[in-house]
Amino acid sequence: MQAFPASHPSPVLDARALSKLHWRCRRGLLENDLFIEQFFLRHEGELTVFHAEGMGALMDLADNDLLDLLLRRKEPSGALDLPAVHTVLGMLRDSGAIPAHGV
Fold first, then answer.
1. Residue 9 located in a structural domain
2. What SS3 class is residue 16?
3. CB 58 within 8 A of CB 85
4. Model confidence band, residue 95 (pLDDT cutoffs 50, 70, 90)
5. What pTM was computed for the model?
6. Distance CA 5, CA 83 (A)
7. Residue 28 domain boundaries
8. Which of 1, 62, 74, 91 has the smallest C-beta neighbourhood within 10 Å, fewest atoms?
9. How far apart are CA 67 and CA 34, in angstroms?
10. Which residues pair with 12 in a beta bridge?
């Protein structure tokens, strides 16, 4: 489990903010949805404003660009080269597209 860096303290998301984040993360590409679904299953209770900022930046990407990052074909650069993006991307990659229950 990866938390936000100590230099970036951030409050945990309340139910309304978490609901908005879920809505914001809806994607058109199934592969991205699988990563995102597992991310929320594993980290939903610990997500902070810092994480929401990173996730928001990633959700601004086109589906194929996001998938390239998730599959480690690319790394964040330019405007995406931010601590929040790196943290959330690491959490998404660690969550993977494999269901948490192992099926």
1. no
2. helix
3. yes
4. confident
5. 0.83
6. 8
7. 15-95
8. 1
9. 11
10. 48
